[in-house]
Every structure is written in structure tokens, then in C-alpha cells.
Amino acid sequence: ACGGSDDDDAAGGSTPTGSRGSAVSAERCAQNEAAGRVTYVTGFQYQASASILDPIAARALGYFDDVCLDVEIQPGTGETAQNAQLVAAGTAQVSSIAGNGDVLVNVANGVDVKAVAMFGHVPVATLMTKPDITDLKQLEGTTLGQKGALPVTIEAMLRAKGVDLSKVKQVVVGYDPSVLVRGQVQSLTGYKSNEPLTLAAMGEEVTEWNPEDYGVPGSIATTIVNPAFLADHRTAVEDFLRAQLKAYAYCEDHAEECVADAAELSQAGYDTDHNVEVWRTETGLVDGSLPAGQVLGQIDEAPVRTEGDFLVQMRQIPAVPDLGEVVVPDLVPSLYSGGELVWPVP
Amino acid sequence: MSTEPAPGAPFVAVDDACKTYGDGEKSVRALAHVDLQVPRGRFVSVIGPSGCGKSTLLRLVAGLEEPDAGTVRICGRTPEAARAAKLIGFVPQVPALLPWLDVLGNVRVLEKVNRPAGRRGSRRGLASDPVALLTRLGLGDVLHRRPGQLSGGMQQRAALARAFALEPQVLLMDEPFSALDEFTRESAQLQLLDVWQDLRTTVVFVTHSIAEAVLLSDTVVVMAAGPGRVAGVVDIDLDRPRHHGQLDTAAMHEHEHRVRQLLETAWNPLEPSGRDVA
Amino acid sequence: MSTEPAPGAPFVAVDDACKTYGDGEKSVRALAHVDLQVPRGRFVSVIGPSGCGKSTLLRLVAGLEEPDAGTVRICGRTPEAARAAKLIGFVPQVPALLPWLDVLGNVRVLEKVNRPAGRRGSRRGLASDPVALLTRLGLGDVLHRRPGQLSGGMQQRAALARAFALEPQVLLMDEPFSALDEFTRESAQLQLLDVWQDLRTTVVFVTHSIAEAVLLSDTVVVMAAGPGRVAGVVDIDLDRPRHHGQLDTAAMHEHEHRVRQLLETAWNPLEPSGRDVA
Amino acid sequence: MRGAARFAHPVFWLPTVLTLLVVAALWSWVAAGNPYVLPTLPSVGRQFLDQPDLYLTNAWTTLSEALLGLLAGVAAAVLVAVLICESALFRRGVTPLAVILNVTPVVAIAPALVVAFGFGMTPKVVVTGLTTFFPVLMNTVTGLRSVDRHVLQVFRTVDASRLDVLLRLRFPSALPYLFSSLRVVFPLSLVGAIVAEFSAAGAQSGLGTLISVASSNSQLDRVFAAIACLAAMGSLMLLVVTTVERRALSWHESQNRR
Amino acid sequence: MRGAARFAHPVFWLPTVLTLLVVAALWSWVAAGNPYVLPTLPSVGRQFLDQPDLYLTNAWTTLSEALLGLLAGVAAAVLVAVLICESALFRRGVTPLAVILNVTPVVAIAPALVVAFGFGMTPKVVVTGLTTFFPVLMNTVTGLRSVDRHVLQVFRTVDASRLDVLLRLRFPSALPYLFSSLRVVFPLSLVGAIVAEFSAAGAQSGLGTLISVASSNSQLDRVFAAIACLAAMGSLMLLVVTTVERRALSWHESQNRR
Ligand SMILES: Nc1ncnc2c1ncn2[C@@H]1O[C@H](COP(=O)(O)OP(=O)(O)OP(=O)(O)O)[C@@H](O)[C@H]1O
Ligand SMILES: Nc1ncnc2c1ncn2[C@@H]1O[C@H](COP(=O)(O)OP(=O)(O)OP(=O)(O)O)[C@@H](O)[C@H]1O
Ligand SMILES: [Mg+2]
Ligand SMILES: [Mg+2]
């Protein structure tokens, strides 16, 4: 009843791949197989986000098979702290978490995971208003809708614009973004790749206020691994990311096909059109924010520290954890040679 | 008073009543073509073998069961109308007290529920003083005990007091003294006769004691079972007031003997295996 | 048989038993210094005014209540041990049938629960054939009816059959015939005497009928109330077997008279207001 | 026969149908004014027509989680109730634990559940079991104690074993209470299963997952189609319990029709 | 007096304390091995010591939501139970509705709740009320019907009004059932309030909000400190119900001590 890794039909992607182990040496294949089944927990279900759709596609395309990995993909609930805890406990080996900030908060609270990759270099959160709001200052004296807690990036943005937060009434709203359109709230937090798309699909026009425009740091989709697993099976982690990155590239060109793979996996109803939009939006954010000279997926201590300092400043964590213990900066670059993903692996 | 029936008409009239419990194969014919006419102010005892339908007949009169055929009239009305007019007092075969109320509360709750009867204005001592009533029944010391803390006979007396306090026009009593010793029973009987005479209440009284039936009643109705029917009627034409000293008189014995004979014929054919074992 | 007590010792012995219900102000002294000695195989009736503690005494013997002072012994053992040895059959004052079982089921369930008693091996017809037992009690037609579908007397007979079927060494019965008509009662009495004689059962029998007590018993214990105590003991030295024909004999009347007198003195001081109303 | 005839009679189904019609009318009126809050009924209906399989398979997942959880939860509750009823010490020991389990929100222990029971069906069954446990426990405890005093005395005079008293006396006496709680927890088990699907990682299917996915996409019609499935299953479960109860408790006052 | 003495006696509190000690020992053992799943007990304790105010104020918010919801839910349930018991038509009409309300996940109707009740405390009270409604309803219905046949007959012979039968007969007869359900819903109301804070609109404080924020930050010590608050409140509520029950039902078999 778990994962899709048992049904081999799912591997029938449109690019035919070689047989098991075709992309690795026999020795590396044996090392990867020694890792056993690798359980990957997604951020939220099989939504077509970065670090969800790409591993799904990697499985469907047979890339994991090619590198001798036995990967099981489990849908997450959207509560990324749970992902961190599952990885730290060893119930899952690899997972995706919203961004570096979330990693730092979890680590600061004692959850022992290592960050091996990240995708976007901008915050994923956004603040939506109706077009009549032209200055964030106007939000004072109005109601702001959020999903349980005001994202720190949004808070920082508002503070940066000099908004007195004590004058903004915050309420928790459900999943339904139409509270904004109906005027029950004057601003609403959301994910760039979700609510704005939904509202757009409804034909509603909204203004997005993005924290990065106000110098607020952030990130999208950080990959975390169990430290012991990384120590014991580093090649497996490497080749997991290798396959994921290869699939990422493939899906950038074949969004519909990859989303179809995810749709097939999902038994609980799947909005294909919406998810294609989600994927396009997210890859746009990821690609658009990739710093020059870096490879996709690369995680360095510097941006993580920036986010860490920011979180300390926002009183989210008492101090930045020892990043040397958290961030594994050299893993992703080692997957590339001359800016190209190494595939097959010698 | 609006409760007066047409002159000469019986106050309680059961006409050709039939009652069958359940349906299909499992049905039980409890009563078949039972007639019972009780003129106003009469004291009628019903006696009969266990299971012959005495309680069923009483419930029919009280309107607690519908007859399958035949009619029941109280003072010319349906039992429902009679209940609505607060004419009926009912003492069931089990005490049926409210376990969460004490003895006094159990007597008072029914009075309260029966309130419109108070409008008759004819209230005498009885209802207005349930404590005295209970004391006369020997429950003066246990007014504030709950049913669960009473002996069987005390519970029965509490149920009795509850019915007396209603001062009903028709008093339907189902073996009300069965759990009482001879002397307590005598005292309760006297009190019943008091109520009956003072209020001109019509009484239908189910009992298993032939002596009691003869001592108290104007008429004894003997029922037979299988299915329940009236086996005979014995009129007790002895002077009133009667007293327990009369119990050993020849006239009394004569009546008792007639009732016993009727009862024996009513009983015998039913359980042939019952008596020959000795 | 291991149930034999020391020769001469009473089979059921209540010594100086006291029982008070509740505590503090609300306490009720139900029994004060009650003695009762029943030799093996004896038939003892207990009679007394309502509320004098007869049921309490029976529950004490059955070990259902603990005496506050004094001791209870059955065959030299505590009531608990006697229960464990499956010596006791108990007929409570209310039928106490299981509403979800039919009549036959109610008789059988107690047999099943009492199973080790079967090991005595002495089982005769009774327990092995509850249907015959029930038929003799006039319940042959209602074997498969549930208690809610029975008349009051039928329920009482079912409870009786349930106790008989246990073939107990001590049969404790609390007004077991109170809801039965004269003839059904006679038949049930005969069956009780059968059981008693065949099994040499020791019987403690609570009743309100003086005639019944005298007719059936070897000894009648008269109790008085306030608090419950033994007011007197009448030995009935009449020949066995007795029969209902004897009811009108002088010897019987003589005994009845003595019991009635004892009972009257036991009753009178209690409820002084009870009798002077006429 | 009579049972089936009962269902077919208008008196039986007409009130239900009428209420549902009134609700539908109200619904349509609200939905017309607030299209973002309530989907229109036709759009919900179309969901079923378009993808009956989707709802059937997901409903089946949730139903099987719910039923397994019920089995576990009710069995555990009855067992603990028996122990509580037989021993005051046990009661004092276990009651606080039961309360803790009862008030702990699933979302807080979801990671622990997944760690303990994996990604499969087990954590959902456990959550459902926990949801159903407490109501059944409380009612069964009261029921096991609500034994007629006189009948208990009769059983005690024959030195009935605790087991006999339990099985032949206490348990049947507890049935009216047990069934009352079953009428509560049969529908409630669906809520347990759904909450588990919402909050524990590894939910691939089930109406809870469907609602979660659909609501993250603001697909109101899908959310409410799933709720309709839940309501239908819940009503059916209630009907089953009530029917069994009617037979099992034919001797009890509560089943008297007037 | 006797009540207070009862609590002070070791037989009363020792089993509870012992169980809690055993649980604590087990807990510590698991927490040592899986610090990501369970926080250590000292760290939970430190939470209280460091920020007692935080927990007190949030607990108060949740408690007041729970109590208001209880009031509304229990009142509504008893009312509907009376109507159901008095009219079979009403029963058939209203039962499906009750089931629908019972199985509808709060998260799904959160938007509707906002529209209907705004962002204040009302939607939480409504959700709590809905949570407590069904268990009380089901038990009260059974209870109102479980009237001794003979007593009912006596009442009918004096033509007792429906209201009198209800208030003086059915209602007291239903009390054992009502209290059973109250023992369920008093702690359950806390869960209702928390779920409402999780998913319904406008929660700014309350233990649910605290748990939701803390668990999304993996602040396990804070999550479990909040759960400890909930458990304490739930146990206290249960104790209150049980104490009241003991007095109100002193006449009922279920309160017999052996
Ligand atoms: N459970 C109880 N709690 C308190 N008092 C009780 C309890 N049971 C009996 N009593 C009291 O004890 C006394 C004796 O009661 P008991 O039932 O033994 O009388 P009894 O002789 O059997 O009377 P009856 O002939 O009416 O059945 C009575 O005053 C009664 O009120
Ligand atoms: N509710 C019922 N359902 C089915 N059968 C019933 C019901 N009530 C009574 N009966 C049956 O009807 C017949 C008459 O019962 P009823 O109670 O009227 O007898 P009774 O004359 O009062 O007997 P007793 O003297 O033993 O009280 C019996 O055969 C009984 O089994
Ligand atoms: Mg009768
Ligand atoms: Mg007695």
C-alpha cells in the first residue's frame, strides 16, 4: 500500500532508459544497493513543485533504477517539520523541506538533519492584496489572513516598509483564497506557486507583494538527509540527487509528461492543468534566482547564514546553528563536471 | 359534576373486549370477549388464576392497552377522555416508584402531574396532606427514604399512598396488598374502604385472596384463563361497614366457598398436571 | 458428603446478628441481635410485619450483606464458603429475571453459572429437566416467552423454578408465592414440599400468610420491627405429610392462633395509629 | 421481510427525503450567493458522474481504515471497560491515561505515529482506534455497572464466577449503553480516518487525502463531493448499527415504539 | 467532607500516580532513543517554568472556547434528543443531518464558518459545539427512551402532559446516559476547540494555535507542554463530571460501589 516503487509500469516514461544499473559502475551499483530502500517524503502530496515532481519523474523515467537505487516516494502532509522529524528518526532517509529557514528552525530545535541541496534562492511566500492597495502602509488598520503563523519573510517585508504590525489584525484563514476577493481580509499570505494561480484561474486580479523585493532573503525546496545515512551511503545520496536533477531538467522541457506521471501516482484526485502551472511557476522562480556561477541544487553556507542571521534578527531562533554541521556544500557540485550533470557515472 | 354518567348506566363498562398480544405464531390471546359492568361507587374485586388476564383487563380499563375488539367506557367516555378528566387512579402490580425521589416525593410528583384534578375543588384531607396519608400507612418514619432503601412492603404502600392522594373517581388496583403482612394489610384495607366511602370512588380491585375479595367487595368477578374470560360473578350482599371480626362468620364463609368453587373450576382445566402430584 | 456439619449443630446458624443500613443520621437499624438456628433438613418460616427485616435476614444468611456484629454460619462455614460450595438457592422478593432471556433460558442460565454443583452427582429429575419443572409450575406454554411478556405470577413462578433447578442444600425464599392465586399457590407449595423432602433441603421461607407458614413449616419464627428482632418461635408439631384438607382442623387453627397472637404483639406497638381508624 | 417493508414505506423515508430537499434548497441559495464558500449542487453531482471511480476507491480506502480502527478501538475499549469495572485500582490508574490519549491532538503526534507504525495503513488505523476508544469506554463502563441489584444478588448466591457475571449479566446489561456509543463511533470513525490522512505522512489515497489535495487547489466541488461520500457512508453505518441494535435489544425499554 | 477525605486517601491517588510514573519512565526511555519524536520530560517541564504565563493564557482561551462550545453543543443535543424522542418524523428528518454534521471534517467547512461567523471566537465555539453534539445526542435519545414501562403507565393513567413526562420521568431516567456522554464530551470539547484553532479562521491564541505553530517549528517540548496542559484540563473536567454524577445519580445502580 505504499509508494509506487513496486509497480514497474510506472517506469514507462517516454525516454527509454537502459536496464538496472545502466548509468553506474558495477561497484557503485553495489554501494547504492547496499543503502537499501531509500524513502523520500515529499513536501505536499504529489504536487508539481520543485523537489516533488522531479523525484517522481526520476522514478517514472527509471533514473533511480539506472543508478541502482530503490526509491520509495511517500506523500507528505504539507507540515514540513514532520518531514524533518521523520528524516532525523530514520523513518525516511531523504526529504524535501520548504527552504533553508525551515531547516535552520528544525535544527535549532534539536532535529538532527543535514541539508544537501536547495533549489530556489527567493522566498516562496508572497502577500496578496487587491489592486487598490498600492502601498503596504495602507494595510494598517486592516485584516491580514494567514495560515497559522505569519511567515517571517512577510513579516520582515512589512517591517521593512515601516508597517506597524500591531495595527494589522491577523486572522487564520482556511485554504480558500477567495476570502481576499470577498473582502473579508485585505491581504492574504500564500505561496507564489499556488494561491495567485488559483485566483488567476478564477479570473480575479490581485497584486503580489514579494519579500525579495524588499531585501528579504529566502529559499525554495531544500533537500535534507539523515546524517547517519549520509555518512554510510554517500554515493546513494549523490546518485539520488543526480537522478532528481536529471529529471528536473527533463521535466522543464516535458512538464505535461512529468505532471502526468505524478497524476498517475496520485490516487486522490489530481488537477493536472493547475499542477502544470505550479511547475512552470516554480521552475521559473528556481531558474530565475540561480546565482551566476552556481549549478542547480547547489547549497552554500553563505546564503544559509544570511537566512540564519535574518531568523535570529526576527527572533525565530536564538542563534544560527553551526552551519558546518548542517550544510553539506560540496555534494551537489561533485555531481557536475564542467557545468554539466555527470551521467552516466563512472 | 360533569363526571356523572347517564343514570343507571355503569360507571365502568367493558363490552366484549378481546386482547391479543403480539402477532403471528407467537401471539397470545390474553382476553376473549370479556364483559364487566361496574356501577358508580361500587367496589368490584377481580380474582382468577395467575396469568388469566386480570392485569390486562385493568390496563384496558385504564386505557394503557387498546382492545383488539370491544369497547371500554368510563363514565360514558373513552379511557383516554377519562384520563384527561383525571378520573383514574392506578396501582400497578409492581410498585413502579421513581427511584430518584424519596417516598414523599413519589406521592407528590403524581399529584403535581395530575394538577387539573385539583380544580375539582372537592379536595379533602387526603391529597392536601400526603404526610398524614403516609403516616397512616406506616411510612411516617421513611418519608425521606428512596425506594431502593425500602422493604418490598414499604414500596407497595408508597405506591398505594400515591394513588390514594389522587382522590380518583375510579381506583384501579392490581394486587395492591400482596406484599403486606396480615395486620398491615388489614390497616391498609381499612384505609382503602375509607377512601372509597368518603369519595364514592368506584374501585376495581385485583386480588388473589378470596377472603379479602369477599370482605371488601360488593361484587367478586372470577376470571378463567386460556383465553382470559369471566367465569362467574358473585355478589356479596353483606351489610356495611364490615370488619375483620366478620371473617369467621358463616355468611362470609358461604360467599368465600362460592368464590373458591368458581375459581377452582376456572383453574382446574388449565393445569391438569398441577394438582395430582402430592 | 462434605456438606455434613458436626452432628447436632444447626445447619443454618445466625448468632446475635446486627445490621444497620447507611451511617450517620440517616442510618436505619434493620436487625438487632437476631438469633436463628435451623437444623439440617428443617423447614422454617419467618413471618413478621412489613419492614421488620425479614429480607435483610435472608440476605444475611445468603451472604449478600455483611452483619455489623454477630456471625452467620451455614453448615459450619461462612456464607461465602457455602456459596462457593454451591449450597444455596435464593428466591428474592422480586422475580429478578434476566429480561433478555426467555423463561427456559432464565432457568438454565443459573444452572450453568452454578455448574460445579452438578459435580455432586446427586442430580435427580429436577435440574436435568427444567422443562418438566416449569410445566409442573404451569409455565409449559410460555417456555420461550421473555419476562416482559409474562404476568406477575408467571414471573414469580419462573424465579421459583430457577431456584428449584439448582437443587440447593439450603433454599432461602422471600415471599415466593405472594403473586399467586390460591390454587396455583397450592400447587407450588406441593412442589416445594417435594423438593424439600426429596433433597433433604433446609428451607428458610419468608411469608405473610400465617396459614401457609403453619401448613408448611416445622418451625415458625415471628419477627418484630423497630429494630428487627425475633419476637417468638412457634414449633409446629403436626404430622407429615400435611395437606390442604388439614387447613380447617383445630390443631392447625390452634397453631395459627398462636402465630397470629405473636405477630399482633409484634405489630401493634409499632404503628399505634394504624388500627384505631375504622 | 417486515424490516424491508419498513424501509419501503413512505413514513420511513419521506421525512429524510424532505429534510434533504430543504437542505438542498438552502444550500443552493447560499451557493448562489457565495460561490467560493459552497459549490453549487450540480457541480458536486457532476464530480460523481465524471469520476465515480475516484470517489469509490478513495471512499473504500477511508472506509477500510475506519472499520479496522473501529474494530481495534471498540475491542480495546470494551476490554479496558471490563478491567476498569472489575478493579477500582485499574480504573484510577488507567483513566488519566485514557484522558491523555483522548485530548492529544492527532497533528501533534502524527510524526511519532509514522515513526512507530510506518507510512502504511497502520497509523491511520491507530488514530481511528484512538478516536473511537473513549466514547465506547465511557459508555461501556457505565453499562457494565448498571446491573439490576436483585439479579446480581441471585448470581452471587450461586457463587457465579466473575467471568459468568460478566458475560451473562453485565455484558447484556451494558448493551443499551454499548449500542448508544456505537451509534456515535461508527460515523465518528470516518472522521478519525480522515484526520489521520490529513496529518500523517504517507497517505496516498482516501477521502481525507482527496479533500486535502482538492482544498489546496480550491476545488470546492471536489471537497464537497468527498464530504457527501462521507455523509453517505456515515448514515449507512448508523443505519446498520441501529438495525442490529433493534434486534439485539428487543427486550429493552429503549426499543419500545409508541 | 467525605468527598475531600476520599481524594486525600492513598488508595485514591496512588494508582494514578503510579501509572503516571510508569508512563514517565517509558516516556523517558523512548525520548532518549528518539529525541525527534518525543521531547525529554525535563525539557517539557522547563517550558512551564520558563513561561507559565504563555501556557496559562493560551489554556484559558482554549478552555473558554471549549466550555462555551460544550454549553451550546450539549444544550442543542438535549433539545434535539427531546424532539427526536417525541416525534419519529423529526427523528427521520434530523438524523441524517446530524450524521452529516458529525462526519464533515472541520477543515473542509472552515471557509463557510468564516463567512457565517466571522473571525472571532464564534467559529471555534461552533466547531466545539458540533464536536460535542453527536455523542450527547445519541446517548440522550437512548436515555429518554429507557423509561421503566410501569412507571410510564402510571404517568399515563393520570394523563400527564408530555412536558411532565419529559421533565419528571424521561429526563431523570436519561441522566445515567447523559452523564456517560458528558464524561466523553467534556474532555472531547478541548479537542474540538483545538481542531477549530488549527483550521477555522481567526485563531490568535489558544493551545491549538500554540501547538500548530510549535509543531511546524519542531518545538516538541512546547507541543508536549501544551498537550500536558490539555491533559490536565481534560482530567480535571472529567473529575468534575464524575463528582457531579456521583451525587446526581446516587439512586442509580451504576453508582454502586462494591
Ligand atoms: N438497601 C437499604 N438501604 C437502607 N435501608 C434499607 C435497605 N434495605 C432495607 N432497608 C431497611 O431495612 C428495614 C428492613 O427491610 P427488609 O427489606 O429486610 O424488610 P422486610 O421484613 O423484608 O419487609 P417486607 O415484608 O416489606 O418485604 C426497613 O426499614 C428498610 O427500610
Ligand atoms: N406485554 C405482553 N406481551 C405479551 N404477552 C403478555 C404481555 N403482558 C401479558 N401477556 C400475557 O397475557 C396473559 C395475561 O397476563 P396478565 O398479566 O394480564 O395476567 P394476570 O391475570 O395479571 O396474572 P397474574 O396474576 O400472574 O399477575 C399472560 O399469558 C401473559 O403471558
Ligand atoms: Mg397481574
Ligand atoms: Mg422483604
UniProtKB/TrEMBL annotation, chains B, C:
Annotated ABC transporter domain residues: 12-250
Keyword Amino-acid biosynthesis tagged: no
Short name of one Pfam family: ABC_tran
PANTHER family xref list: ABC TRANSPORTER ATP-BINDING PROTEIN, TAURINE IMPORT ATP-BINDING PROTEIN-RELATED
Gene Ontology molecular function terms on file: ATP binding; ATP hydrolysis activity
Keyword Transport: yes
Signal peptide extent: none
SUPFAM superfamilies, sorted: P-loop containing nucleoside triphosphate hydrolases
Designated name of the protein: NitT/TauT family transport system ATP-binding protein
Organism the protein comes from: Kineococcus aurantiacus
Classification via InterPro entries: AAA+_ATPase, ABC_transporter-like_ATP-bd, ABC_transporter-like_CS, ABC_transporter_ATP-bind, P-loop_NTPase
Keywords (A to Z) from UniProt: ATP-binding, Nucleotide-binding, Transport
UniProtKB/TrEMBL annotation, chains D, E:
This protein's name: NitT/TauT family transport system permease protein
Family, similarity comment: Belongs to the binding-protein-dependent transport system permease family.
GO biological process assignments: transmembrane transport
Gene3D superfamilies: MetI-like
Cellular component GO terms held in the UniProt record: plasma membrane
Bilayer topology term: Multi-pass membrane protein
Residue ranges constituting the ABC transmembrane type-1 domain according to the UniProt record: 59-245
InterPro entries per the UniProt record, alphabetical: MetI-like, MetI-like_sf
Source species, domain of life: Bacteria
Organism: Kineococcus aurantiacus
Subcellular location: Cell membrane
TM segment ranges: 12-32, 66-85, 97-119, 125-144, 177-203, 223-244
Keywords, ordered alphabetically: Cell membrane, Membrane, Transmembrane, Transmembrane helix, Transport
